[in-house]
Design a protein that fits this description.
heterodimer; A: about 220 residues; Fumarate Reductase Cytochrome B subunit; two-stranded antiparallel ribbon; 2 strands; about 65% helix; about 0% strand; B: about 300 residues; alpha+beta; Alpha-Beta Plaits; four-stranded mixed sheet; 11 strands; elongated
Chain lengths: ~220, ~300
Protein backbone atom coordinates (compact mmCIF):
# COMPACT_ATOMS: atom_id res chain seq x y z
CA UNK A 1 0.00 0.00 0.00
CA UNK A 2 1.48 3.35 -0.96
CA UNK A 3 0.22 5.43 1.92
CA UNK A 4 1.79 8.67 3.01
CA UNK A 5 3.85 8.17 6.15
CA UNK A 6 1.75 8.97 9.17
CA UNK A 7 2.27 8.99 12.89
CA UNK A 8 2.84 5.36 13.81
CA UNK A 9 -0.16 5.05 16.10
CA UNK A 10 -2.72 6.43 13.64
CA UNK A 11 -4.92 3.79 12.06
CA UNK A 12 -5.64 3.67 8.33
CA UNK A 13 -9.41 3.70 7.87
CA UNK A 14 -9.83 4.50 4.17
CA UNK A 15 -7.00 3.70 1.75
CA UNK A 16 -6.22 6.02 -1.14
CA UNK A 17 -8.28 3.98 -3.62
CA UNK A 18 -11.40 4.29 -1.50
CA UNK A 19 -10.82 7.97 -0.79
CA UNK A 20 -10.33 8.93 -4.43
CA UNK A 21 -13.34 6.89 -5.53
CA UNK A 22 -15.49 8.29 -2.72
CA UNK A 23 -14.82 11.87 -3.71
CA UNK A 24 -15.24 11.13 -7.41
CA UNK A 25 -18.68 9.70 -6.58
CA UNK A 26 -19.38 12.85 -4.56
CA UNK A 27 -18.55 15.10 -7.50
CA UNK A 28 -20.66 13.04 -9.90
CA UNK A 29 -23.49 12.96 -7.36
CA UNK A 30 -23.55 16.73 -6.97
CA UNK A 31 -23.59 17.26 -10.72
CA UNK A 32 -26.36 14.69 -11.18
CA UNK A 33 -28.33 15.93 -8.18
CA UNK A 34 -28.13 19.57 -9.24
CA UNK A 35 -29.34 18.89 -12.76
CA UNK A 36 -31.90 16.34 -11.57
CA UNK A 37 -33.38 18.45 -8.79
CA UNK A 38 -33.59 21.36 -11.25
CA UNK A 39 -35.99 19.27 -13.33
CA UNK A 40 -37.84 17.97 -10.30
CA UNK A 41 -39.15 21.13 -8.67
CA UNK A 42 -39.46 24.62 -10.19
CA UNK A 43 -38.12 26.11 -6.94
CA UNK A 44 -34.82 24.41 -7.76
CA UNK A 45 -34.72 25.16 -11.48
CA UNK A 46 -31.90 27.65 -10.83
CA UNK A 47 -29.67 24.64 -10.10
CA UNK A 48 -29.71 23.93 -13.83
CA UNK A 49 -27.42 26.96 -14.18
CA UNK A 50 -24.64 25.01 -12.47
CA UNK A 51 -24.37 22.80 -15.53
CA UNK A 52 -24.80 25.60 -18.04
CA UNK A 53 -28.57 26.01 -18.27
CA UNK A 54 -31.66 23.88 -18.87
CA UNK A 55 -30.75 22.23 -22.17
CA UNK A 56 -27.22 21.44 -20.98
CA UNK A 57 -28.62 19.98 -17.76
CA UNK A 58 -30.86 17.69 -19.79
CA UNK A 59 -27.99 16.71 -22.08
CA UNK A 60 -25.45 16.11 -19.28
CA UNK A 61 -27.64 14.67 -16.51
CA UNK A 62 -27.90 11.12 -17.89
CA UNK A 63 -24.18 10.93 -18.67
CA UNK A 64 -23.21 12.32 -15.29
CA UNK A 65 -25.65 9.90 -13.66
CA UNK A 66 -24.13 7.00 -15.56
CA UNK A 67 -20.64 8.04 -14.46
CA UNK A 68 -21.91 8.21 -10.86
CA UNK A 69 -23.38 4.71 -11.02
CA UNK A 70 -20.26 3.21 -12.59
CA UNK A 71 -17.93 4.91 -10.09
CA UNK A 72 -20.21 3.91 -7.23
CA UNK A 73 -20.13 0.31 -8.42
CA UNK A 74 -16.31 0.27 -8.53
CA UNK A 75 -16.20 1.98 -5.13
CA UNK A 76 -18.85 -0.04 -3.35
CA UNK A 77 -18.45 -3.54 -4.84
CA UNK A 78 -15.54 -4.52 -2.52
CA UNK A 79 -17.35 -3.07 0.50
CA UNK A 80 -20.25 -5.53 0.26
CA UNK A 81 -18.75 -7.98 2.78
CA UNK A 82 -17.89 -5.28 5.32
CA UNK A 83 -21.46 -4.03 5.26
CA UNK A 84 -23.17 -7.29 6.11
CA UNK A 85 -25.40 -6.79 9.13
CA UNK A 86 -24.15 -8.59 12.26
CA UNK A 87 -26.09 -9.39 15.43
CA UNK A 88 -24.38 -6.52 17.25
CA UNK A 89 -25.65 -4.14 14.53
CA UNK A 90 -29.21 -4.93 15.50
CA UNK A 91 -28.44 -4.22 19.14
CA UNK A 92 -26.75 -0.98 18.15
CA UNK A 93 -29.76 -0.03 16.05
CA UNK A 94 -32.15 -0.72 18.92
CA UNK A 95 -30.27 1.92 20.89
CA UNK A 96 -30.26 4.53 18.14
CA UNK A 97 -31.86 7.04 20.51
CA UNK A 98 -28.77 6.87 22.75
CA UNK A 99 -26.55 7.31 19.70
CA UNK A 100 -28.47 10.43 18.65
CA UNK A 101 -28.31 11.84 22.19
CA UNK A 102 -24.52 11.26 22.41
CA UNK A 103 -24.96 8.74 25.22
CA UNK A 104 -22.25 6.57 23.75
CA UNK A 105 -21.19 4.73 26.91
CA UNK A 106 -22.16 1.10 26.89
CA UNK A 107 -23.24 0.93 23.25
CA UNK A 108 -22.59 -2.46 21.65
CA UNK A 109 -19.09 -2.83 20.23
CA UNK A 110 -19.21 -2.74 16.45
CA UNK A 111 -17.07 -3.36 13.38
CA UNK A 112 -15.70 -1.00 10.75
CA UNK A 113 -19.12 0.41 9.93
CA UNK A 114 -22.07 1.01 12.22
CA UNK A 115 -25.58 -0.15 11.41
CA UNK A 116 -26.57 3.28 10.13
CA UNK A 117 -23.68 3.28 7.69
CA UNK A 118 -24.54 -0.25 6.61
CA UNK A 119 -28.17 0.63 6.02
CA UNK A 120 -27.08 3.67 4.05
CA UNK A 121 -24.86 1.40 1.98
CA UNK A 122 -27.78 -0.80 1.00
CA UNK A 123 -30.10 2.15 0.43
CA UNK A 124 -27.49 3.63 -1.91
CA UNK A 125 -27.03 0.34 -3.76
CA UNK A 126 -30.80 0.04 -4.26
CA UNK A 127 -31.14 3.69 -5.32
CA UNK A 128 -28.29 3.42 -7.81
CA UNK A 129 -29.85 0.34 -9.37
CA UNK A 130 -33.32 1.90 -9.69
CA UNK A 131 -31.89 5.20 -10.94
CA UNK A 132 -29.84 3.40 -13.59
CA UNK A 133 -32.69 1.28 -14.94
CA UNK A 134 -35.42 3.93 -14.76
CA UNK A 135 -33.01 6.55 -16.07
CA UNK A 136 -32.38 4.54 -19.22
CA UNK A 137 -36.13 4.25 -19.84
CA UNK A 138 -36.69 8.03 -19.59
CA UNK A 139 -33.51 8.98 -21.49
CA UNK A 140 -35.41 10.72 -24.24
CA UNK A 141 -32.61 11.26 -26.72
CA UNK A 142 -31.55 7.64 -27.05
CA UNK A 143 -33.88 5.19 -25.36
CA UNK A 144 -37.31 6.48 -24.30
CA UNK A 145 -38.87 5.96 -27.74
CA UNK A 146 -38.24 2.21 -27.47
CA UNK A 147 -40.44 1.85 -24.39
CA UNK A 148 -44.24 2.00 -24.14
CA UNK A 149 -45.55 5.23 -22.68
CA UNK A 150 -46.78 3.48 -19.53
CA UNK A 151 -43.26 2.24 -18.83
CA UNK A 152 -41.86 5.75 -19.34
CA UNK A 153 -44.37 7.22 -16.86
CA UNK A 154 -43.67 4.51 -14.28
CA UNK A 155 -39.92 4.95 -14.74
CA UNK A 156 -40.25 8.71 -14.25
CA UNK A 157 -41.98 8.17 -10.90
CA UNK A 158 -39.50 5.48 -9.80
CA UNK A 159 -36.61 7.72 -10.83
CA UNK A 160 -37.99 10.54 -8.70
CA UNK A 161 -38.58 8.27 -5.69
CA UNK A 162 -35.12 6.71 -5.90
CA UNK A 163 -33.51 10.13 -6.33
CA UNK A 164 -35.43 11.39 -3.31
CA UNK A 165 -34.22 8.44 -1.21
CA UNK A 166 -30.67 9.00 -2.45
CA UNK A 167 -30.67 12.71 -1.65
CA UNK A 168 -32.22 12.04 1.76
CA UNK A 169 -29.57 9.38 2.40
CA UNK A 170 -26.83 11.81 1.45
CA UNK A 171 -28.28 14.48 3.76
CA UNK A 172 -28.14 12.00 6.64
CA UNK A 173 -24.65 10.88 5.58
CA UNK A 174 -23.28 14.42 5.45
CA UNK A 175 -24.95 15.37 8.74
CA UNK A 176 -23.46 12.32 10.44
CA UNK A 177 -20.02 13.00 8.97
CA UNK A 178 -20.07 16.58 10.25
CA UNK A 179 -21.35 15.36 13.62
CA UNK A 180 -18.84 12.57 14.28
CA UNK A 181 -15.61 14.51 14.52
CA UNK A 182 -12.70 12.82 12.79
CA UNK A 183 -14.70 11.08 10.11
CA UNK A 184 -14.31 13.78 7.44
CA UNK A 185 -10.59 13.78 8.13
CA UNK A 186 -10.63 10.00 7.74
CA UNK A 187 -12.13 10.28 4.28
CA UNK A 188 -9.78 13.12 3.31
CA UNK A 189 -6.41 11.86 4.57
CA UNK A 190 -7.31 8.29 5.44
CA UNK A 191 -6.42 7.95 9.11
CA UNK A 192 -8.11 8.07 12.50
CA UNK A 193 -6.66 8.12 16.00
CA UNK A 194 -6.76 4.93 18.08
CA UNK A 195 -9.13 6.68 20.46
CA UNK A 196 -11.53 7.42 17.62
CA UNK A 197 -11.53 3.81 16.50
CA UNK A 198 -11.82 2.61 20.09
CA UNK A 199 -14.78 4.88 20.79
CA UNK A 200 -16.78 4.36 17.62
CA UNK A 201 -15.74 1.01 16.11
CA UNK A 202 -14.19 -1.10 18.83
CA UNK A 203 -14.39 -4.47 17.05
CA UNK A 204 -12.62 -2.96 14.05
CA UNK A 205 -10.11 -1.28 16.40
CA UNK A 206 -9.12 -4.66 17.85
CA UNK A 207 -8.75 -6.15 14.38
CA UNK A 208 -6.58 -3.24 13.32
CA UNK A 209 -4.15 -3.33 16.22
CA UNK A 210 -3.68 -7.06 16.11
CA UNK A 211 -0.11 -7.65 14.84
CA UNK A 212 -1.47 -9.11 11.57
CA UNK A 213 -3.66 -6.06 11.05
CA UNK A 214 -7.15 -6.03 9.54
CA UNK A 215 -8.62 -3.92 6.80
CA UNK B 1 -43.61 32.31 -29.27
CA UNK B 2 -44.40 34.88 -26.63
CA UNK B 3 -47.55 36.59 -27.71
CA UNK B 4 -48.15 39.47 -25.36
CA UNK B 5 -51.55 40.11 -26.87
CA UNK B 6 -52.71 36.89 -25.26
CA UNK B 7 -53.07 36.52 -21.52
CA UNK B 8 -51.77 33.42 -19.84
CA UNK B 9 -53.80 31.11 -17.66
CA UNK B 10 -51.15 28.52 -16.90
CA UNK B 11 -47.37 28.54 -17.23
CA UNK B 12 -45.19 25.43 -16.91
CA UNK B 13 -42.91 24.99 -13.87
CA UNK B 14 -44.16 28.20 -12.31
CA UNK B 15 -45.49 28.39 -8.76
CA UNK B 16 -46.70 31.99 -8.83
CA UNK B 17 -49.61 33.48 -10.76
CA UNK B 18 -49.01 33.94 -14.49
CA UNK B 19 -49.74 37.32 -16.12
CA UNK B 20 -53.49 37.35 -16.50
CA UNK B 21 -54.69 40.89 -15.82
CA UNK B 22 -57.03 40.75 -18.79
CA UNK B 23 -58.07 37.14 -18.39
CA UNK B 24 -61.69 37.97 -17.63
CA UNK B 25 -62.06 39.61 -21.01
CA UNK B 26 -60.78 36.57 -22.88
CA UNK B 27 -63.30 34.05 -24.06
CA UNK B 28 -62.47 30.41 -24.49
CA UNK B 29 -61.99 29.49 -28.11
CA UNK B 30 -62.25 26.12 -29.74
CA UNK B 31 -61.79 24.36 -33.04
CA UNK B 32 -64.59 22.02 -33.98
CA UNK B 33 -63.74 19.17 -36.34
CA UNK B 34 -66.82 17.54 -37.80
CA UNK B 35 -65.49 14.12 -38.70
CA UNK B 36 -68.74 13.33 -40.52
CA UNK B 37 -68.03 16.10 -43.03
CA UNK B 38 -64.38 15.31 -43.63
CA UNK B 39 -63.46 13.97 -47.07
CA UNK B 40 -59.79 13.29 -46.24
CA UNK B 41 -58.36 15.73 -48.78
CA UNK B 42 -55.49 16.74 -46.48
CA UNK B 43 -55.83 20.41 -47.39
CA UNK B 44 -55.57 21.12 -43.64
CA UNK B 45 -52.21 19.33 -43.51
CA UNK B 46 -50.98 21.41 -46.41
CA UNK B 47 -52.27 24.67 -44.95
CA UNK B 48 -50.56 23.82 -41.67
CA UNK B 49 -47.27 23.23 -43.48
CA UNK B 50 -47.65 26.43 -45.41
CA UNK B 51 -48.59 28.75 -42.58
CA UNK B 52 -46.06 27.32 -40.13
CA UNK B 53 -43.25 26.93 -42.68
CA UNK B 54 -42.97 23.21 -42.04
CA UNK B 55 -41.39 20.86 -44.58
CA UNK B 56 -41.26 17.28 -43.37
CA UNK B 57 -39.04 14.57 -44.82
CA UNK B 58 -40.51 13.05 -47.96
CA UNK B 59 -41.61 9.65 -46.71
CA UNK B 60 -42.75 6.46 -48.37
CA UNK B 61 -46.21 5.00 -48.86
CA UNK B 62 -46.86 2.65 -45.98
CA UNK B 63 -49.88 1.00 -47.57
CA UNK B 64 -52.59 3.25 -46.16
CA UNK B 65 -53.76 6.77 -46.89
CA UNK B 66 -52.10 8.22 -43.78
CA UNK B 67 -49.28 10.40 -45.03
CA UNK B 68 -47.06 10.94 -43.18
CA UNK B 69 -47.92 7.86 -41.14
CA UNK B 70 -47.63 9.70 -37.83
CA UNK B 71 -47.30 13.14 -36.28
CA UNK B 72 -43.73 14.44 -36.33
CA UNK B 73 -41.89 17.54 -35.21
CA UNK B 74 -42.69 18.96 -38.65
CA UNK B 75 -46.13 17.45 -39.22
CA UNK B 76 -48.35 18.94 -36.55
CA UNK B 77 -51.53 17.50 -37.94
CA UNK B 78 -52.13 14.20 -39.73
CA UNK B 79 -55.29 12.71 -41.19
CA UNK B 80 -55.84 9.23 -39.85
CA UNK B 81 -57.91 6.94 -42.04
CA UNK B 82 -59.80 4.06 -40.43
CA UNK B 83 -61.88 1.52 -42.32
CA UNK B 84 -64.77 0.41 -40.15
CA UNK B 85 -67.25 -2.28 -41.06
CA UNK B 86 -70.45 -1.40 -39.26
CA UNK B 87 -72.87 -4.03 -37.87
CA UNK B 88 -74.92 -3.79 -41.07
CA UNK B 89 -71.85 -4.92 -42.99
CA UNK B 90 -71.30 -1.57 -44.68
CA UNK B 91 -67.91 0.07 -44.86
CA UNK B 92 -67.46 3.42 -43.14
CA UNK B 93 -64.38 5.47 -43.80
CA UNK B 94 -63.68 7.26 -40.54
CA UNK B 95 -61.18 10.02 -41.13
CA UNK B 96 -59.90 11.92 -38.16
CA UNK B 97 -57.64 14.95 -38.26
CA UNK B 98 -55.19 14.16 -35.46
CA UNK B 99 -53.15 16.73 -33.59
CA UNK B 100 -53.00 18.59 -30.31
CA UNK B 101 -56.36 18.70 -28.52
CA UNK B 102 -55.45 21.80 -26.45
CA UNK B 103 -56.71 20.28 -23.19
CA UNK B 104 -58.33 22.38 -20.52
CA UNK B 105 -56.05 20.60 -18.05
CA UNK B 106 -52.94 19.96 -20.17
CA UNK B 107 -50.77 17.01 -19.09
CA UNK B 108 -47.81 18.31 -21.12
CA UNK B 109 -47.82 21.57 -19.18
CA UNK B 110 -48.14 19.74 -15.87
CA UNK B 111 -45.14 17.56 -16.69
CA UNK B 112 -42.91 20.29 -18.16
CA UNK B 113 -40.01 21.21 -15.83
CA UNK B 114 -38.86 24.31 -17.72
CA UNK B 115 -40.45 27.58 -16.59
CA UNK B 116 -42.51 29.07 -19.39
CA UNK B 117 -41.70 26.45 -22.03
CA UNK B 118 -45.41 25.56 -22.17
CA UNK B 119 -48.18 28.07 -21.58
CA UNK B 120 -51.93 27.94 -21.75
CA UNK B 121 -53.43 31.20 -22.91
CA UNK B 122 -56.62 32.52 -21.36
CA UNK B 123 -58.38 31.57 -24.60
CA UNK B 124 -57.48 27.93 -23.98
CA UNK B 125 -54.70 27.47 -26.55
CA UNK B 126 -51.80 25.40 -25.22
CA UNK B 127 -48.58 26.63 -26.78
CA UNK B 128 -44.99 25.40 -26.70
CA UNK B 129 -42.35 28.11 -26.47
CA UNK B 130 -39.49 26.25 -28.06
CA UNK B 131 -36.91 28.85 -27.06
CA UNK B 132 -37.48 27.76 -23.44
CA UNK B 133 -37.73 24.04 -24.23
CA UNK B 134 -34.88 22.02 -22.72
CA UNK B 135 -35.57 18.81 -24.64
CA UNK B 136 -36.33 16.47 -21.72
CA UNK B 137 -39.44 14.96 -23.31
CA UNK B 138 -41.52 15.04 -20.13
CA UNK B 139 -44.37 16.58 -22.15
CA UNK B 140 -44.56 13.31 -24.07
CA UNK B 141 -45.05 11.41 -20.80
CA UNK B 142 -47.66 13.93 -19.69
CA UNK B 143 -49.78 13.97 -22.86
CA UNK B 144 -52.80 11.62 -22.85
CA UNK B 145 -53.11 11.93 -26.65
CA UNK B 146 -49.54 11.11 -27.74
CA UNK B 147 -49.04 14.42 -29.50
CA UNK B 148 -45.71 16.19 -28.72
CA UNK B 149 -42.73 15.26 -30.88
CA UNK B 150 -39.09 16.09 -30.23
CA UNK B 151 -37.05 17.25 -33.19
CA UNK B 152 -33.95 15.20 -33.91
CA UNK B 153 -32.38 18.36 -35.26
CA UNK B 154 -32.72 20.74 -32.32
CA UNK B 155 -34.11 18.54 -29.50
CA UNK B 156 -37.09 20.83 -28.96
CA UNK B 157 -40.67 19.67 -28.64
CA UNK B 158 -43.19 20.68 -31.30
CA UNK B 159 -46.92 20.37 -31.83
CA UNK B 160 -49.94 22.22 -33.19
CA UNK B 161 -50.11 25.81 -31.92
CA UNK B 162 -53.77 26.18 -32.93
CA UNK B 163 -52.18 28.98 -34.96
CA UNK B 164 -51.87 31.08 -31.81
CA UNK B 165 -50.11 33.73 -33.90
CA UNK B 166 -53.10 34.00 -36.25
CA UNK B 167 -55.67 33.81 -33.46
CA UNK B 168 -53.87 36.58 -31.57
CA UNK B 169 -54.60 38.96 -34.43
CA UNK B 170 -58.17 37.84 -34.98
CA UNK B 171 -57.65 35.25 -37.70
CA UNK B 172 -58.84 31.66 -37.68
CA UNK B 173 -56.29 28.78 -37.75
CA UNK B 174 -54.85 27.94 -41.18
CA UNK B 175 -56.52 24.50 -41.31
CA UNK B 176 -59.92 26.08 -40.64
CA UNK B 177 -59.33 28.69 -43.31
CA UNK B 178 -58.56 26.12 -45.94
CA UNK B 179 -61.02 23.28 -45.23
CA UNK B 180 -63.10 22.96 -48.42
CA UNK B 181 -66.07 21.14 -46.86
CA UNK B 182 -66.45 23.28 -43.77
CA UNK B 183 -65.62 20.28 -41.60
CA UNK B 184 -63.33 22.44 -39.47
CA UNK B 185 -64.77 25.53 -37.83
CA UNK B 186 -63.43 27.90 -35.21
CA UNK B 187 -64.99 30.24 -32.69
CA UNK B 188 -65.87 30.58 -29.05
CA UNK B 189 -66.10 27.25 -27.31
CA UNK B 190 -69.70 28.03 -26.38
CA UNK B 191 -70.65 28.67 -29.99
CA UNK B 192 -68.80 25.58 -31.21
CA UNK B 193 -70.72 23.46 -28.72
CA UNK B 194 -74.00 24.91 -29.99
CA UNK B 195 -73.02 24.21 -33.60
CA UNK B 196 -71.98 20.71 -32.61
CA UNK B 197 -75.31 20.10 -30.87
CA UNK B 198 -77.19 21.07 -34.05
CA UNK B 199 -75.00 18.80 -36.13
CA UNK B 200 -75.43 15.94 -33.68
CA UNK B 201 -79.22 16.27 -33.89
CA UNK B 202 -78.92 16.22 -37.65
CA UNK B 203 -76.71 13.11 -37.61
CA UNK B 204 -79.08 11.34 -35.25
CA UNK B 205 -81.96 12.00 -37.64
CA UNK B 206 -79.86 10.41 -40.37
CA UNK B 207 -79.44 7.13 -38.54
CA UNK B 208 -76.37 7.76 -36.43
CA UNK B 209 -78.06 7.18 -33.10
CA UNK B 210 -74.81 7.48 -31.15
CA UNK B 211 -73.58 10.68 -32.78
CA UNK B 212 -72.12 13.09 -30.28
CA UNK B 213 -69.53 15.67 -29.34
CA UNK B 214 -66.06 14.65 -28.18
CA UNK B 215 -65.02 17.12 -25.48
CA UNK B 216 -63.62 14.76 -22.80
CA UNK B 217 -64.22 15.72 -19.17
CA UNK B 218 -61.16 13.86 -17.88
CA UNK B 219 -58.78 16.46 -19.29
CA UNK B 220 -60.97 19.43 -18.40
CA UNK B 221 -62.56 19.49 -21.84
CA UNK B 222 -60.57 20.28 -24.95
CA UNK B 223 -60.20 23.27 -27.22
CA UNK B 224 -60.18 21.01 -30.24
CA UNK B 225 -63.43 19.05 -30.32
CA UNK B 226 -64.77 16.40 -32.65
CA UNK B 227 -68.26 15.66 -33.86
CA UNK B 228 -68.25 11.86 -34.12
CA UNK B 229 -70.88 9.66 -35.75
CA UNK B 230 -70.01 7.02 -33.16
CA UNK B 231 -69.34 9.05 -30.05
CA UNK B 232 -69.93 5.91 -27.98
CA UNK B 233 -66.85 4.30 -29.57
CA UNK B 234 -64.13 6.93 -30.03
CA UNK B 235 -61.55 4.15 -30.39
CA UNK B 236 -62.95 3.45 -33.88
CA UNK B 237 -61.33 6.70 -34.99
CA UNK B 238 -57.74 5.41 -35.09
CA UNK B 239 -57.59 4.87 -31.34
CA UNK B 240 -59.05 8.11 -30.03
CA UNK B 241 -59.12 7.48 -26.25
CA UNK B 242 -62.61 7.07 -24.78
CA UNK B 243 -61.79 8.59 -21.40
CA UNK B 244 -58.48 10.41 -21.65
CA UNK B 245 -56.93 11.80 -18.49
CA UNK B 246 -53.51 12.75 -17.28
CA UNK B 247 -52.00 9.49 -15.99
CA UNK B 248 -52.19 9.08 -12.18
CA UNK B 249 -48.44 8.36 -12.28
CA UNK B 250 -47.81 11.77 -13.85
CA UNK B 251 -50.13 13.39 -11.31
CA UNK B 252 -48.17 11.79 -8.48
CA UNK B 253 -44.81 12.66 -10.01
CA UNK B 254 -45.73 16.26 -10.79
CA UNK B 255 -48.21 16.73 -7.95
CA UNK B 256 -47.88 15.67 -4.32
CA UNK B 257 -44.41 14.18 -4.75
CA UNK B 258 -42.80 17.54 -5.48
CA UNK B 259 -43.55 19.60 -2.35
CA UNK B 260 -43.56 16.51 -0.13
CA UNK B 261 -40.09 15.25 -1.03
CA UNK B 262 -38.57 18.72 -1.16
CA UNK B 263 -40.05 19.45 2.27
CA UNK B 264 -38.75 16.20 3.74
CA UNK B 265 -35.25 16.81 2.39
CA UNK B 266 -35.14 20.31 3.85
CA UNK B 267 -36.58 19.00 7.13
CA UNK B 268 -33.95 16.26 7.33
CA UNK B 269 -31.14 18.76 6.77
CA UNK B 270 -32.52 21.09 9.45
CA UNK B 271 -33.04 18.18 11.85
CA UNK B 272 -29.44 17.04 11.36
CA UNK B 273 -28.10 20.52 11.95
CA UNK B 274 -30.33 21.12 14.98
CA UNK B 275 -29.33 17.84 16.58
CA UNK B 276 -25.72 18.93 16.22
CA UNK B 277 -26.56 22.23 17.88
CA UNK B 278 -28.61 20.51 20.58
CA UNK B 279 -26.32 17.65 21.71
CA UNK B 280 -23.03 18.80 20.22
CA UNK B 281 -20.53 16.89 18.10
CA UNK B 282 -19.31 13.40 18.87
CA UNK B 283 -15.73 14.10 19.92
CA UNK B 284 -12.97 11.77 20.96
CA UNK B 285 -11.77 12.68 24.46
CA UNK B 286 -8.25 12.15 25.81
CA UNK B 287 -9.81 9.46 27.97
CA UNK B 288 -10.76 7.52 24.81
CA UNK B 289 -7.18 7.70 23.60
CA UNK B 290 -5.92 6.43 26.95
CA UNK B 291 -8.47 3.62 26.91
CA UNK B 292 -7.38 2.72 23.40
CA UNK B 293 -3.76 2.64 24.54
CA UNK B 294 -4.63 0.34 27.48
CA UNK B 295 -6.59 -1.95 25.17
CA UNK B 296 -3.69 -2.06 22.75
CA UNK B 297 -1.25 -3.02 25.48
CA UNK B 298 -3.64 -5.67 26.74
CA UNK B 299 -3.93 -7.26 23.31
CA UNK B 300 -0.20 -7.11 22.55
CA UNK B 301 0.74 -8.69 25.86
Amino acid sequence: MTEKAHAPDLLLRHDSRDRVLHWLVVIAFFAAAASGLALFHPALFWLSNLLGGGPWSVILHPFVGLVMVVLFYIFARPLWQENKLEPYDRQWLSRIQDVVENRDEGLPEIGKYNAGQKLLYFVLVACMLVLLLSGLVIWRRYFAAYFPIGAVRLAAVLHAIAAFALVLGVVVHVSAAAWVKGSIRAMLVGTVTPGWAYKHHRVWFREKIRPTGGR
Amino acid sequence: MALQSLDIRRRSATTTAPPAARADASVELAKLIDVSKCIGCKACQTACMEWNDLRDEIGVNVGVYDNPPDLTDRSWTVMRFAEYENPKGDLEWLIRKDGCMHCGDPGCLKACPSPGAIVQYANGIVDFHEEHCIGCGFCIAGCPFNVPRISKKDNKAYKCTLCSDRVAVGLEPACVKTCPTGAITFGTKERMKQDAAERVTDLKSRGFANAGLYDPEGVGGTHVMYVLHHADQPALYSGLPAAPRVSPLVRLWKGAAKPLSLGLIVLAAIAGFMNYVRVGPKEVEPEDERAAQREKERIHD
